[in-house]
Amino acid sequence: MTFANQGVHVASMRFEEGETALIVGVPEAEPLVRRWRQREIGVPAHVTVLAPFLHVSRIDEGTHGELRALFARHSAFEVSFRRVGRFPEVVYLVPEPEAAFVNLTQAVVARWPETPPYRGTFAEIVPHLTVALGSGLDEAKIAGGLPLTATAAAVSLMVCDDGEHWSEVAEFRLAS
């Protein structure tokens, strides 16, 4: 997820060791986007719920319990990717319904207002699944692999290990 019309994408943001993010993994998109995505950083194809979230040093069992309860109040949902979008220098898949992702983000920020999406840099939430950075990608090749359908059933808590690589540390199920 990034924010529209700003010319900056989260992939260009720098993350520090110990920063965390909340994402919805979309493994169904991997066959289509794998060759363009930066797989070596440990983040699967996903739609971001919130980045950065709390520093890992502030996350304990109580935080896990609150996240578990928060996400359990939201139902799992089917998501479709039918079209390709573009921010400056970013090609992405557009998730439908977008509102389901926005609702997840807003719920987390309502509980932890000190964690505005992307450090408060952008005004509008635009959920997306990043395919590639740069302008050289043929969007028609990606569009040819659409539509994709997936089930958003869980939110993963990811931690930045060393400023570049990410690992999943917890998963929180959405209500079934």
List the main descriptive attributes of the protein structure presented here.
single chain, Cyclic_Pdiesterase, four-stranded antiparallel β-sheet, 4 helices, 176 residues, 2'-5' RNA ligase family protein, ligase, Cyclic Phosphodiesterase, Chain: A, 20% helix, ligase activity, disordered N terminus, alpha+beta
Task: Give an overview in words.
- InterPro entries: Cyclic_Pdiesterase.
- This is 2'-5' RNA ligase family protein.
- GO terms for molecular function: ligase activity.
- Mean pLDDT is 89; it is low at 1-10.
- It is globular and about 45 Å long.
- The protein has one domain (2-173): Alpha-Beta Complex (Cyclic Phosphodiesterase, Chain: A).
- The protein is 20% helix and 33% strand.
- It has a four-stranded antiparallel β-sheet with strand order 3-2-9-10.
- It has helices spanning 30-33, 61-72, 98-111, 139-143, and strands at residues 2-3, 20-25, 46-50, 77-87, 90-96, 125-126, 129-133, 148-152, 154-160, 166-173.
- It is an alpha+beta fold and 176 residues long.
- The longest helix is centred in the middle third of the chain and has 14 residues, at 98-111.
